[in-house]
Amino acid sequence: MALDLILRRGQLHERAAGAAASRDASGDASGERLHDQEAHWVDIGIDGNRIVAIAPHLDLTATHEIALQGRWVSPPLVESHIHLDSVLTAGEPRWNQSGTLFEGIEIWRERKQRLTQADVEARAIAALKLMAAQGVLFVRSHADVSEPSLTALKGLLAVREQVRDWLTLQVVAFPQDGVYGDAQTEAQMEEALRLGADVVGGIPHYELTREDGVRSLQRIFDLAQTYDRLIDIHCDEMDDEQSRFLEVVAALALRTGLGSRVTASHTTAFGSYNNAYALKLMGILPRANLNFIANPLINLTLQGRTDTYPKRRGLTRVKELWQHGLNVSLGHDCIQDPWYSLGTGNMLDVAQMAIHACQMTGLAEIEACYDMITVNGARTLHLGDTYGIAIGKPANLIVLDADSPYEALRRRATVTHVIAQGKLLVETHPPRSQWNPAMLPQPGNVCDT
Ligand code: 17E
Ligand code: FE2
């Protein structure tokens, strides 16, 4: 019997910083290393939408075979935090001149008056295609529910259905202007959950008072329990060291027992807390067992805008959270919108920025940053057993033009193949520079980027 698809001679990464450390010692291209690596090459057999076989040499045939020649096979990338309702609107109606969160919210308030469902759907799908072509198959997106029409939410719920054959999308009911920003938003959030939002969102640091912020969190936890949904709060996205809603989220997670169903996004003020308070907080967080999401591309540009010098990085304590065993993932937050005019949908860019800005430069730390755009994101999204590469699991996987996470991140390697639910979704050829032979006539005038 022929299978549908076999990937031949791919590398399934051994997650051991020790193995890579010996590579550092032995030099790059020793024969021994090559031999070692080939020992990890496998064939992966796919039938229907499942992985049905993994072995060094599969003695089977398939309708379609792809030769990987030692390229690295990874579970798909996970984008755990993005705002798909605002993607691809940078400059509409105007550019964010101050670069602050607050000017971004003002501009979005103007832009969202003109939202139509078709507009939201077209931009969100364009962004998802950009992302999926670069290996992202699982996404959590916030949808602003501050408008009575709930256009952003309805648009993204429709997109969730339109893409479901190739990408899993979760939608967060996110009250951008605050749960108590006006008299209607609280009811709109509940309506969003009735309509099918997967996750309850919040923004306590943007509520009018500290007390409103605390009250909003209590309401969010109530809603999550009533409707049996996950929670993902925009929490303390400020440089104000007095913005301390993370402790409230942690206390609620602990007391309700919701723990790993709760995520604190951004938490940039944590980068500004004094160490005495941070020590206390770090003692509580593992007990609360929250997930954290950092968005290094955007918060590095958004935060620190009121500083002169020294200028804060404005990121949460990614390395320290990771060292304390907490589940941390990374997101883009934005692709070309009022808060961040750049972005390409490439998660390797996001992890690269985390490596630099959070000083995660040790080899185990670099590998941890790869986890933060794959398995850790899967945990935050509660993907459960369906995520990962193993016999019997859904056949979602990607192939990179690299032989390890370290190489993938160092070179921001091309994702050459994206397999979604057993089918080849996208194939990309890595760029290759061809030297002019008149200038460099020796062999080797082709070099990989
Ligand atoms: N809204 C918000 O409150 N914070 C952000 N970083 C974005 C939207 C992108
Ligand atoms: Fe965000």
Can you walk me through this structure?
The chain has 449 residues and is α/β, with parallel strands linked by helices. 35% of the residues lie in helices and 22% in strands. The protein has 15 helices and 18 strands. Strands 1, 2, 3, 4, 5, 14, 15 and 16 form an eight-stranded mixed β-sheet that branches. Strands 6-7-8-9-10-11-12-13 form an eight-stranded parallel β-sheet. Helix 4 (117-132) packs across helix 5, helix 8 packs parallel to helix 9 and helix 12 (347-357) crosses helix 13 (363-371). The model is unreliable at 16-34 (pLDDT under 50). 5-methylcytosine binds at residues 83, 101, 176, 203, 234, 237, 298, 333-334, 339. Residues 83, 101, 176, 203, 234, 237, 298, 333-334, 339 line the site of 5-methylcytosine.
The radius of gyration over CA amounts to 23 Å
- Work out the helix count: 15
Bound ligand species: 5-methylcytosine, fe (ii) ion
Global morphology: globular
Query: Structural class of the secondary elements?
Result: alpha/beta
Gap between N and C termini, in Å? 40 Å
Can you summarize the main beta sheet? 8 strands, mixed
Oligomer: single chain
Low-confidence segments, given as residue ranges, are: 16-34
- Helical fraction: 25-40%
Total strands: the figure is 18
Which strand-content bin applies to the residues?
A: 15-25%
Overall mean pLDDT score?
A: 94
